[in-house]
Amino acid sequence: MSEVLVETDGKVGIVTLNRPQSLNALSIAVMDAVSEALGGFDRDPEIRCMVLAGLPKSFAAGADISEMKNIDGAEGAEKMLSRNLSNWDKIGSLKKPLIAAVSGFALGGGCELAMACDMIVASETAVFGQPEVLIGVMPGAGGTQRLTKAVGKAVSMEMNLTGRRLGAREALERGLVNRMVPVENYLSEAIKLAKLIAEQPPLAVQAAKAAVNAAVDRGLKDGLAAERRAFYGLFDTQDQKEGMKAFAEKRKAVWTGK
């Protein structure tokens, strides 16, 4: 069974993450497939709006740590991960509107993926978080930048420094998501919103999206670059090695600050 499902519903392109055995962990292959599928829809003149969905239990529970835990140093991290991390940048730069349909876990890279979309429809079970600090690193695909712009410095700081999570209701109250719906409706509501957008004049929609992004993204590229450098640098630390090893061994990590 494909780990990334691609379909259309009228003028709406739908991409669904489909790795239930790993709670939709975002492997390099999965992110390549997601980026390619959304890029294809972005270039397709028949598609006016897109939806990126996860499964009811998990939108995406984070990066695939098994692909990262043996990286050696900052240079090794940049060499191995830079192309993959660029997938989040590509998704955030799509011309056509993209709606995330989120249910269950949206953690780490999954939270960053949802935030790279233009809007988020969340189920009542949705949980958002940037828990990278708990495994000795930090967000590297926009988690410190987009989250701060969405919920403000104080909440973003707490989430990034402690791994605190936001439930769907608080995410709605803080402006991270557009709406909260019952779990059985999260995908249908996202598609309904996408169809409403798809009915509007496409050039005006794309121009309006670009203008809204211009209002919030000034300085984002510089911030993303600084975040990326800091992210890579953490692979030079012992705590990164310990954090990912402890995760793999299902035990509590012992931090040394080295």
Question: Which tags fit this structure?
Answer:
258 residues; alpha/beta; 2-enoyl-CoA Hydratase, Chain A, domain 1; six-stranded mixed sheet
Can you walk through the features of this model?
A six-stranded mixed beta sheet has the order 1-2-3-5-7-10, sandwiched between helices. The model has no long low-confidence stretch (mean pLDDT 93). It is of the alpha/beta class. Helix 1 runs parallel beside helix 2.
Write the layout of secondary structure elements.
Layout: E1 4-9, E2 12-17, H1 28-43, E3 49-53, E4 58-60, H2 73-92, E5 98-102, E6 105-107, H3 109-116, E7 119-123, E8 127-129, H4 146-151, H5 153-162, E9 165-167, H6 168-173, E10 179-181, H7 186-198, H8 202-217, H9 220-233, H10 238-249
Helix pairs in contact: 1-2, 2-3
